């Protein structure tokens, strides 16, 4: 039975998730404006973001393999230091070279961070006999991430009142450095893997093979499809929400920050509400959450108050789907491979977001932003249908798998 109160392991994880989400939101809300006000041209900005995105994608799975070999805590601390130092330097940079170098280092740190906190936490819960808390922790971590993003919106407004954008970015980077020190000093060290190959290169090569075999396996294809649907929904929504609101005149431009906070809280509500799907067939749970995203995006194609509700519904679905696929994915991964496979799914979603935004951008350019929303709704609906049809009849819920099994990717019937 799940404990009423989260363990200290879980509470530390939630604190870190909130802090990192806040800092990440601060960066996402200000970095383009900071570069343009520093005199960096749009073409250079686009090129730098593309290169940084490719670097992050390439490093995602190898960083997970390193964490599985040397410990999630070690890689987590290094990632936070790299990310924090880069974000602080980015805030102080006033040239394209300085901004570009900082952006590359930031993506290295982000790749190292990605997957490490949840992998460390689930493994620690299992080592200490608290595997029954894992499903609730996976869901709550997703919820707290959205809450942290909402707080980040408030922070941008509050800090921006007294500081310039560069200073806001620099301060947020220092916050990550403090978080790195806190993790290094207070989080328990992990036992190193003792059954791996003799060298780091051999371990990395084996991890890459395992990741590929998992992604192309029947189980991996099903989970990947769920992440693709989530990635398409999130990618299109991020692309269209600002122009859609401004184009329709639904809110003044000065209120976009408040709208974004509301959207983040909508995602947090969806993550929390996903608890009602705990005992459902995981194929049904995943498909239901994706359908909510599709319905929300479809509603945003109209120029009326229904569009506002549509964005909230879509974010609600994104929060719910994120919680469901996180719990489901963690139920399938062995402790020794947890970060590698978590990073594999992050890479799949990163690629899905990139493809979705590329195609949606072309649709937007040719047919308008409403058509881009419609494209996103159709793509997510197709993914939802695929996730439902591919689920086998002998279904278990993500919660049951995560609590009772605790991670065995050889069980083909667990992703259902």
Residue-averaged pLDDT, rounded?
Answer: 78
Number of discrete helical segments: 15
Low-pLDDT sequence parts: 392-416
Give me the count of strands: 0
The shape is globular
List keywords for this structure.
Growth Hormone, Chain: A, disordered C terminus, 416 residues, globular, 15 helices, mainly alpha
Q: Can you describe this structure in just a few lines?
A:
The protein is mostly helical. Helix content is 80%, strand content 0%.
Structure explained in plain terms:
By secondary structure, the chain is mainly α. It is 80% helix and 0% strand. It has 2 domains: 1-194, Up-down Bundle (Growth Hormone, Chain: A), CATH 1.20.1250; 204-416, Up-down Bundle (Growth Hormone, Chain: A), CATH 1.20.1250. It contains 15 helices and no strands. α1 packs antiparallel against α5, α6 (134-162) crosses α12 (305-332) and α12 (305-332) runs parallel beside α15. The chain is globular. The model is unreliable at 392-416 (pLDDT under 50).
Give the arrangement of secondary structure elements:
Layout: H1 8-37, H2 42-70, H3 72-92, H4 96-113, H5 116-127, H6 134-162, H7 165-186, H8 200-216, H9 218-248, H10 256-273, H11 282-299, H12 305-332, H13 338-367, H14 369-389, H15 398-405
Helix pairs in contact: 1-5, 1-6, 1-7, 2-3, 2-4, 2-8, 2-13, 3-4, 3-5, 3-7, 5-6, 6-10, 6-12, 8-9, 8-13, 9-11, 9-12, 9-13, 9-14, 10-12, 11-12, 11-14, 12-15, 13-14
